[in-house]
Each structure stands twice: as C-alpha cells, then as structure tokens.
Amino acid sequence: MNLLKVGLIGVGGIAEGRHIPAIQNLAEKAVITGVSDINVHRAEQIAEKYDIPSVYENYHEMLPHIDAVIISTPNKFHSEIAVAALQAGVHVLCEKPMALSTEECDRMIQASKESGKILSIAYHYRFMKNAQAAKKVMLEGEIGEPLVIRTQGLRRRKVPGWGVFTNKELQGGGSLIDYGCHLLDLSIWLMGNPVPVEVMGSQYNLLSRTPDQVNLWGEFDYKTFEVDDHVTGYIRFENGASLLLETSWSANIKDDVENVSISGEKGGLDVFPFHLNQAKHGMLLNSEASFIPGDENPGNPQAENFVDCCLGLAEQVVKPEEARMVSMLIEAIYKSSLTGSSVKLDYRKEVESQ
Ligand SMILES: NC(=O)c1ccc[n+]([C@@H]2O[C@H](COP(=O)([O-])OP(=O)(O)OC[C@H]3O[C@@H](n4cnc5c(N)ncnc54)[C@H](O)[C@@H]3O)[C@@H](O)[C@H]2O)c1
Hints:
Helices cover 34% and strands 24% of the residues. The chain is α/β, with parallel strands linked by helices. The structure holds nicotinamide-adenine-dinucleotide. Nicotinamide-adenine-dinucleotide is lined by residues 9-15, 37-39, 42, 72-75, 77, 95-96, 122, 124, 163, 178. Residues 132-269 form the GFO/IDH/MocA-like oxidoreductase domain.
C-alpha cells in the first residue's frame, strides 16, 4: 500500500502537540512530507525536529505534492485554505471550529462535494473513551430518547495567553467558539443530530476586561480583550428536546467543570466521569464504569479515522455537515446575545434549498 502523504498548514501548538505525533504513530499508513506556516522559521524548526523533508513558505506550493492536509491556523483562515486544498484534490482535516460562519462552512462543503475529497473537522472530544462509551450506551437504547441535555465547559481562570485567541477578527469569538464548540459538538452528536429550531444566548467578558488578572494559562492584555469569556445558551429542538449550554474561560466559580449530562426518557448519563443513572427494579440506580477500553489520547483515533477515510478504509466520524451545525448554533447564540432576542432557525428549509 502506498503511504498517504500528509502536509500541515499552521504548525503551532496543536499541530506539534497533537497532529504530528498522531500521524507519525501511523507510520504503516501515512507519512508527513511537508509543512507550511506564515512563520517560516517556526516551520523550519518543526521540520528539523520531526524529520519532515519539505518546508513551504506558500502553502499553495505544497498542495501538488501531498494527498492530505491538516489545517491548524487561526480560525479566520480555515475556510479559504480548506477550499484551496480541496480544489487542488487534497483531503482535509481542519481544526475546530470549522470556520467563522455557516457561509464559510458551506463553501468548504461545496468544495468537498465537487472534488470528492474528504473534509473532516478536528472535534476530538468524540474520540474520547468516555464519549465513545456514552455513544454506545445511547445507540443501544439504554437511556431512550434524550429529553434535557446540560452541557458545561467551564474554566475558572484559563484565558489562553498565547497565539491570537483573544483577537476577534482572527478567531471570531472567545470561550464559546474556542472551547464551548467541543462540548456542543459532543452533545449534539450524542443526541443523534436532532434539528434545532430556536436559540437564545448571552455572552459576557467583564471579568477579562479588568486589571490585576489572575490567569492560569499565561498573560493577556485586559485592555485589548475583545471576545467573550463566559457564555450561556439555550437550544430547543424540533423533537422537543432542549439543551442548556454554559461555557467559560473566566468565571467566578469554585472549580472548573466539564461534562455533558443527558436525561433521557428511560435513563440518564453523565459523560465525564461516566455515570449511568436509572430508575429500575423499584430503585434509583447509579452505575459507574470501572474500565473503559480505548486510547487515552483522542488525537490518535482521530488521526487514524482521518487517514483511514482518505484511504477508503473507514467511515468518517465527524462529518462536515455536523460541524457546520455547531457553527450555525454558535452563530445563533452570538446573534441572540447581541440582539437580545431568540433566533428562530429554519434548518430543514435551508438544507432542502441546497
Ligand atoms: N482541537 C483542539 O482541542 C484545539 C486545541 C488548540 C487549538 N485548536 C485550534 O487549532 C488552531 C490553531 O491553534 P494553536 O493553538 O495551534 O495556535 P498557535 O498560535 O499555537 O499556532 C497557529 C500557527 O498558525 C500559523 N499561521 C497563522 N496564520 C497562518 C496562515 N494564514 N497560514 C499558515 N499559517 C498560519 C502561525 O504562525 C502559528 O504557527 C485554531 O483554529 C484553534 O482553534 C484546537
């Protein structure tokens, strides 16, 4: 079997920490042959450290030499680079969020359809052992139809102090588009992708705009902080289910919290840590998992699924239409927060018209 030739565009923290080791673990199927970054010095350092043969200042020049690419640039560039890669006949794994708007997501999906190449988004929470276990339990009907979902990704004081995470133009937002997107994606996937009909949201950033910051993830300038650091959202679905979302980089809470809690018609579950909650045999029963199989590092199965999809060996776990849905909901939460009104969605009509 020919090795899949993989390139990387944007080789900062996540490319080095997650994607490069994960692809290099798959040496029997794939090889990293090139890297590109607007910071050429950084690209050269990475190429030397990880024994990658080619460095390209302009990513367009790399595309004819690779089969697949992983895009890990700031969010603003996801769409334009993904479209260029797909149009050049290259499979794409793009970092989350898929893009800054649903319009940009649509362009990516269109380019993928026209080229017949894979487009996937790095929503790696789905590959976590607990998430896979929860999905299995749900598919086996153990808790029945989901009714109420509580989604929380709360950090007490962890504004990312590196890169461009507090720059609205380059990232499109803060805690919601950067962190909440993972939990939102996981929740909707676990629910079986129901159709949303109405969204409300509120966003805050007062805590990150005050002097004398105490921040656990590096330093940032409170005077230029322009994105959200705490967001609440409420999503109502066509099937009657509802989802309560809360996410933060900065909040006056006792501890960080990360969980998706689903109350279904026959039972409920918590994903982190995994719990199954049931009313059965005349009792209230709580079960916890003492062993869940799988890789501790979700970056590995994520890379393997992408490579296998490119080689025609597997079905995509994260489909672009699902990642687009997350972007659509994020857009609606921000819009609702700005307008002070709920946002009605006509998703079915939108899909039918495409
Ligand atoms: N899946 C996750 O959990 C996760 C975690 C962290 C970051 N991310 C995502 O990955 C992306 C990058 O984040 P990061 O933490 O690695 O940031 P980073 O700042 O560490 O790295 C970004 C890199 O992209 C380069 N770059 C900027 N503009 C570019 C362009 N137009 N073309 C090519 N290269 C360009 C920068 O020079 C830098 O080396 C973001 O979209 C972020 O949301 C995802």
